[in-house]
Design brief:
Blueprint (H helix, E strand, L loop, with lengths): L13 E4 L2 H11 L4 E8 L9 E7 L4 E5 L7 H7 L5 E4 L2 H12 L6 E3 H8 L9 H9 L12 H7 L4 H12 L1 H14 L3 H20 L5 H26 L23 H11 L9 H7 L2 H19 L1 H4 L12 E3 L9 E3 L22 E8 L2 H10 L2 H8 L4 H10 L8 H16 L4 H8 L3 H14 L1 H17 L1 E3 L5 E3 L10 H38 L4 E6 L3 E7 L3 H19 L7 E6 L5
Parallel strand pairs: 1-4, 2-5, 5-6
Antiparallel strand pairs: 2-3, 3-4, 7-8, 9-13, 9-14, 10-11, 12-13
Helix pairs in contact: 3-9, 4-8, 9-22, 10-13, 15-21, 15-22, 17-18, 19-20, 20-21, 21-22, 22-23
This protein binds a DNA duplex (10 and 14 nucleotides) through helix 11, helix 13, strand 8, helix 18 and helix 19.
Protein name: DNA polymerase I
InterPro entries: 3'-5'_exonuclease_dom, DNA-dir_DNA_pol_A_CS, DNA-dir_DNA_pol_A_palm_dom, DNA/RNA_pol_sf, DNA_polymerase_A, RNaseH-like_sf, RNaseH_sf
EC number: 2.7.7.7
DNA sequence: AGAGGTGGTG
DNA sequence: CATGCACCACCTCT
């Protein structure tokens, strides 16, 4: 096979730079490059605990390794790293962007991220986008990614870099060039350049969002936990007292108290309780099954579970993630966290903080600041209207009508004024959302509370009135199966592993693809939209020089943190930029967004 | 350690 | 034939 890279794997060429003179000299050379690779080595994955050790800047043949302990003046390199005329290849650049900004105050511009590119290229195939995997895949070389064996934290103390450290550091930068070239070819061939540019432009926004983090009112949060624990304890005691007679052997604990008969958290023991001792025959212990029994113990158990859930998932565990340096929460945003292109969020997952509970209002602005929250109104349904071009849907949005009411009026053949909010409108809402998930009549029936036949009738009626929606959904499903991928308005692709006709699950696999094929263009286009919005908002805040920053995003919502006196301006700009992003993708349907300035996170 | 169940978000 | 999309965290059990 032809040599696809121009460096020596076992002995990569590099220059280890510890003096200002050598740095200036290297900077002069690098300023002449059009494309460079950037990488860093440090002691921690945490932006604020990390001690920056090395900054590598690579050219295709040679890596310049700057010793971050010895170098004091980074100005010549800042000029290069911030030069928009020089393309910077990085691997998982969100991390390096954050580290370099936190440690050196330098902002990487004009980024090509091999990890994001790979995630775009293999989207849907569940393949790794790690450097090791890509080096093997594109270059057929094996990288030693045993990071621990290098003991960077110890080297960080001594400042004594060994040959293996420098080799490793050099190679990490050098491999990026050939990977970039191979990926670039694929991105072009597959028509993915546009979506890659979008993702690369979002990267700095994500890194800064993580750097900024969210502020929490800890005392208030603790108060919520205390209340919940009390409630959980009361409910648990009631249940245990109630079921104790059902068990013949009751034990005392060390203090002479009657001990619990069962572990309320064990669905196995709960199932045994209901089926063997209470004479029911439940298939499972989920909320749907339990609430349909009307058994008093089932009721109490659901209450217990609600408290238990909130305590375990959002209680002290979340507070433990507050950064000791900044006193804020810095979650990990996965930029392409879902195959549809949506973000995911972890450690902690701030995208699943309960809406109704008191927890959400513990996310507060600091003194002198405000939170600005804006979300798109019915973003995904507007995307569906755009794709299907259904005249009724499009007209409803053009006339700024409530879509669920319009569909209810059409389906039930009644005037809009007579649509009842919790009857016809609710049913229409369920159908509207269900359609976007490729939902069938049986599951629909279960939720609306009618039999399957009536649900089928409702669906038929819906599709009769909104025939273009049906045409588009069927087309999207067919397209996905026949072509092996779906696309979004922003040019994203999601690939599907083809269903094997010999597989016993063949039909299920096909219908899986069909449902994903309906949902992916909708959910994915929404994701594209909010990513454009994030870029626009950051640019706008910078251009207008206002003290406002993006701190959070939840699929169709963006939260910013602004200095109090400019919060209203921030709200206006944020909304304008979100609409601009929407108008970039939706040509036939208007987009709308609404927001608030507040002390707490709400919408 | 990993699977399965349950439940939180959009 | 089986039938709601996309995630993440916690718990228990094996």
């Amino acid at each position: 096979m032809p040599e696809s890279y121009s460096f020596n794997i076992t002995s990569p060429s590099y220059e280890y730079i510890t003096s200002q003179e050598k740095l200036v000299e290297a900077a002069r050379i690098l300023l002449g490059e059009k494309v460079i690779a950037v990488d860093t080595e440090g002691t921690s994955l945490d932006y604020y605990y990390n001690k920056l050790l090395l900054v590598q800047i690579g050219t295709p043949e040679k890596a310049y390794i700057f010793d971050a302990i010895k170098i004091k003046d980074w100005a010549p390199l800042k000029k290069i790293i911030e030069d928009p005329g020089i393309l910077k290849i990085v691997q998982n650049g969100k991390f390096d962007y954050g580290i370099i900004k936190a440690a050196l105050g330098i902002e990487i511009t004009n980024i090509y991220d091999t990890m994001l590119a790979e995630q775009i290229i293999v989207n849907g195939f569940k393949q790794s986008a790690s450097l090791g995997t890509m080096a093997k895949k594109y270059l057929e070389i094996t990288l030693d990614k045993n990071y621990e064996s290098y003991q960077w934290d110890k080297v960080g103390v001594s400042g004594n870099f060994q040959k293996n450290h420098l080799n490793y550091a050099a190679l990490d930068a050098l491999v990026l060039f050939p990977i970039f070239h191979k990926q670039w070819e694929i991105l072009n061939k597959e028509g993915l350049v546009k979506i890659a540019r979008l993702e690369f432009s979002v990267l700095p926004v994500v890194a800064e969002m993580e750097l900024t983090g969210s502020h929490i009112d800890v005392a208030k949060w603790r108060g919520v936990i205390v209340d919940l624990r009390l409630k959980r304890q009361e409910t648990a005691k009631k249940i245990q007292d109630e079921i104790r007679p059902l068990f013949s052997y009751n034990q005392m604990d060390l203090f002479g108290n009657l001990s619990d008969s069962i572990n309320l958290n064990s669905q196995q023991q709960i199932l045994e309780l209901f089926n063997d001792r209470l004479g029911l025959s439940l298939p499972s212990t989920g909320v749907k099954v339990l609430s349909s029994t009307n058994h008093p113990i089932a009721k109490m158990l659901l209450e217990y579970r609600a408290s238990e859930k909130l305590i375990s998932a959002f209680g002290e565990n979340l507070l433990a993630k507050i950064n000791k340096v900044t006193g804020r929460l810095h979650p990990d945003f996965q930029q392409i966290g879902a195959a549809t292109g949506r973000f995911s969020c972890s450690s902690p997952n701030l995208q699943q903080i309960p809406r109704g509970s008191q927890f959400r209002s513990c996310f507060v602005a600091e003194k002198g600041r405000k939170l600005v929250t804006v979300d798109y109104s019915q973003q995904e349904l507007r995307v569906l209207a755009e794709y299907s071009e259904d005249p009724t849907l499009v007209a409803a949005y053009k006339e700024k009508k409530d879509l669920h009411t319009v569909t209810a009026a059409m389906m039930y053949g009644i005037p809009e004024e007579r649509v009842r909010k919790d009857v016809e409108r609710q049913a229409s809402k369920t159908i509207n959302f269900g359609l976007m998930y490729g939902r069938g009549a049986s599951s629909l029936a279960a939720q609306i509370g009618v039999n399957q036949e009536e649900a089928k009738k409702l669906l038929d009626l819906y599709f009769k009135k909104f025939s273009k929606v049906k045409v588009w959904l069927d087309w999207a499903a067919k397209f996905a199966v026949e072509n092996g991928y779906s696309t979004t308005l922003g040019g994203r692709k999601r690939y599907y592993i083809p269903a094997d006709p010999g597989d016993p699950n063949y039909l299920k696999m096909v219908s899986d693809i069909e449902r994903k094929g309906k949902n992916t263009p909708i959910q994915g286009s929404g994701a594209d939209m909010i990513k454009y919005a994030l870029i626009f908002i950051r640019d706008r805040f910078r251009k207008e020089k206002i003290d406002a920053r993006i701190i959070h995003t939840v699929h169709d919502e963006i939260v910013c943190d602004a200095e109090a006196s400019v919060a209203d301006d921030a709200l206006r700009m944020q909304k304008e930029e979100m609409l601009r992003a929407g108008e970039l993708l939706l040509k036939k349907v208007p987009i709308d967004a609404s927001g608030v300035v507040s002390e707490v996170w709400e919408h």
